[in-house]
């Protein structure tokens, strides 16, 4: 579901400030609601997950055909990540990248840059989580994705490739606030086995 949400975020950002924005928002609301429901109630998620995936596909197709040609940030980064790390499923890459990208967009809201994209993403977030101004709205959506994907057993970060950090992790490869960082004790848990299927 994080993959579907990342499609909606990318589509909203790409169409923000264009004539297609409202049409896309109308199309995405059903899928966003289904994704929200599937994340909140994963035990009954089959129909909601299919509806969210279908709506995400329609949204991606519609957003790609816009004159502004804005970059789909999450999907671009996920493509780079999975190209360099073929062991990482694309949907997991989107899950890991979506919250930091949303938080970066929230910083853009603070700085007043990219107002059309930020406003469009905030509208999507408000439809799922309730009203808030743009910056808190984007941060709330990032926290929601982290929280509910975490409950489903999806990691919030990826383990580093052993070639990137052999042996104990050096300081730049783990959380600098972790007092055991660099001593090999800061390992990221493995993703669930079903994730790669």
Automatic annotation (TrEMBL):
<protein>
    <recommendedName>
        <fullName>MMS19 nucleotide excision repair protein</fullName>
    </recommendedName>
</protein>
């Amino acid at each position: 579901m994080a993959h579907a949400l990342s499609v909606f975020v990318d589509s909203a950002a790409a169409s923000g400030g264009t004539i297609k924005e409202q049409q896309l928002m109308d199309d995405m609301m059903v899928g966003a609601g289904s994704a929200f429901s599937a994340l909140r109630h994963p035990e009954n998620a089959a129909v909601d997950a299919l509806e969210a995936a279908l709506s995400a596909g329609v949204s991606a197709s519609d957003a790609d055909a816009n004159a502004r040609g804005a970059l789909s940030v999450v999907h671009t980064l996920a493509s780079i990540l999975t190209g360099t790390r073929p062991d990482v499923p694309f949907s997991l890459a989107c899950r890991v990248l979506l919250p930091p990208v949303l938080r970066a967009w929230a910083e853009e809201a603070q700085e007043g840059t990219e107002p059309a994209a930020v406003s469009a993403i905030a509208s999507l977030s408000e439809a799922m989580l309730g009203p808030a101004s743009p910056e808190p709205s984007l941060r709330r959506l990032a926290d929601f994705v982290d929280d509910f994907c975490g409950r489903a057993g999806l990691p919030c970060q990826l383990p580093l490739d052993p070639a990137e950090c052999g042996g104990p992790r050096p300081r730049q490869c783990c959380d600098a606030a972790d007092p055991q960082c660099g001593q090999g004790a800061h390992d990221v848990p493995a993703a669930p086995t079903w994730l790669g299927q």
